[in-house]
Amino acid sequence: MGGKLSIQLNAGVPNDLKLSYLPVRARGEAPRMMLIHYGVKFEDEVVDFATWGGSRKAEAPFGQLPLLTANGAKLAQSGSIIHYLAEISGCSLRDRLMNARIDVYFELYNEFLNKHPINPIANGFIAKEEIPAKVAACVKDFHDTYCDWFAKGLELLEGPFFGGKRPHYADFAVWSLVDIIMFMQPDLLDKPEVKGLVAMKAWYQAVAELPKIKTYLAARPAPNGH
């Protein structure tokens, strides 16, 4: 089935590595979890909304967060951040074709977030009267389509993760997606009749039980606005 993980620390971990994000669960969660799990030293900067609304937004490339600082450079766009961190943390596969096949599920994560405003909903940025219909549409799409697609990705390599025996960056991205949907719909993974859901539930639990991730999850705050 192929595909060996490569520890690519020879790329060098910058001494000034800093991840900057708002006090919400969204695009900052996956890179944060990657760094924590693989033991990469970094500064986890939480930028409050008042500070972000001042000079910080004007200083950020494209006026967006998350923002990664590395060797004095500022890297924007969550996908670019994820791929760079995968290189320096070893959270990718040596087999380039297999890595691309797993990266497909990272792209499905992005596709789902672009279709459904689940992060704005969970973090208090959607009008309350709009929430039930939007959550219902999100859950239906996950159950009807994406759950089975993600589950198929877990079949590519032997092990509990998309990356096989060790987590890949796609694991942390997709996990953050499933987790934020579950915040709004706690029984999301309790529908064994949904195709692929049994495998996805076992995978979700495997990620959550990783020792450093388990410690992080126990201490993280609730999403903004709740």
What does this structure look like?
There is one protein chain. The protein contains nine helices and four strands; from the N terminus they run E-H-E-H-E-E-H-H-H-H-H-H-H. The protein is α+β, with helices and mostly antiparallel strands. A four-stranded mixed beta sheet has the order 2-1-3-4, with helices on one face. The longest helix has 23 residues, at 131-153. It starts with 17 loop residues before the first strand and ends in a 7-residue tail after the last helix. The model is unreliable at 1-10 (pLDDT under 50).
What's the tally of helices?
A: 9
**How much of the sequence is in beta strands?**
5-15%
Q: How many β-strands, per DSSP? A: 4
Q: Overall mean pLDDT score?
A: 90
Strand order of the largest sheet: 2-1-3-4
Outline the biggest β-sheet. Answer: 4 strands, mixed
Residue ranges: pLDDT <50 for 5 or more in a row? 1-10
Structural class: alpha+beta
Question: Gist?
Answer:
52% of the residues lie in helices and 7% in strands. By secondary structure, it is of the alpha+beta class.
Outline the fold blueprint.
Elements: E1 18-21, H1 29-37, E2 43-46, H2 49-59, E3 67-70, E4 73-76, H3 78-89, H4 96-115, H5 118-122, H6 131-153, H7 169-184, H8 197-208, H9 211-219
Parallel strand pairs: 1-2
Antiparallel strand pairs: 1-3, 3-4
Helix pairs in contact: 1-3, 1-7, 4-6, 4-7
Structure characteristics:
disordered N terminus, 4-stranded mixed β-sheet, 4 strands, 52% helix, 226 residues, globular, alpha+beta, 9 helices
